[in-house]
Amino acid sequence: MISNITDKVLGSAAEWQNRMLDEVYPIVYMDAIHFKVRDDHRIVTKAAYICLGVDMDGYKDILGIWIGESEGAKFWLSVCNDLNNRGVKDICIACMDGLRGLPDAIKTVFPNVSIQSCIIHQIRSSMRYVPYKDRKIFVADLKKVYKAPNEEIALAQLDMLKEKWNDKYSNVIESWYINWDKLSTFFAFNEQIRKMIYTTNTLEGINRQIRKFTKTRTVFPTDDSLRKSLYLATEIIMQKWTSPISNWGLILSQFMIMFGDRLNKNEII
């Protein structure tokens, strides 16, 4: 009886994971959540990589969940190809946090995508190397960069940050310059869209909800057991998504100006 129920749930999960998707998504978020899984008499840490999309009507949808032990360009290429094979032809903005290999992979499959790395995670990463005595002042100076009204002023503030702090924290400053092309995408948009894309907090909130549903299991006996639990959790979470994002009409108007014909579903090839 239990086996039959499990098989039915796994069948539904597979059907959900392989369903066809929309041709274009204005925004997608990608992040990982980690679990302990038993594998050949070992307990290993595996990641569930979750992709959340915002569709043309402003509704959120979890596009898929992929389980793996390690990430990299090859893994992410398979994920992006999966999305493409299920009907996705274009993504305007992909929001992510330091997922190794993802930027190159997603650009290969969706060459026009704009990438926005999570500013909050970049800040947290930076602060690991700044001792407490300097932290308050450094954060205040750093805030002038990511809170700047436009990219030109942000770069000027970053140059000032370098001039002031480079002798002490050159590696921290350099990481902002190296990653600037992926950190600065949000400057092209108004405040409302900036709040949506400059961090992956939207998806991290979903991850916290998933944790609530899976907290009774410290170790999952198999990948299928984890997959079943994740599917059931996402089904419950998505049932609450009955309304579009607030003020979506105004947000979509901004996207139409920025991305034009790419958002006309009838013109997607």
TrEMBL record:
Membership in a protein family: Belongs to the transposase mutator family.
PROSITE patterns: TRANSPOSASE_MUTATOR
Keywords: DNA recombination, DNA-binding, Transposable element, Transposition
Highest taxon of the lineage: Bacteria
UniProt entry tagged with the keyword DNA-binding: yes
Example of a GO biological process term: DNA transposition
PANTHER family registered for this protein in UniProt: MUTATOR FAMILY TRANSPOSASE, TRANSPOSASE FOR INSERTION SEQUENCE ELEMENT IS1081
Function according to Swiss-Prot or TrEMBL: Required for the transposition of the insertion element.
UniProt lineage: Bacteria, Bacillati, Bacillota, Clostridia, Eubacteriales
Molecular function terms from GO: DNA binding; transposase activity
InterPro entries found in the cross-reference section: Transposase_mutator
UniProt name for this protein: Mutator family transposase
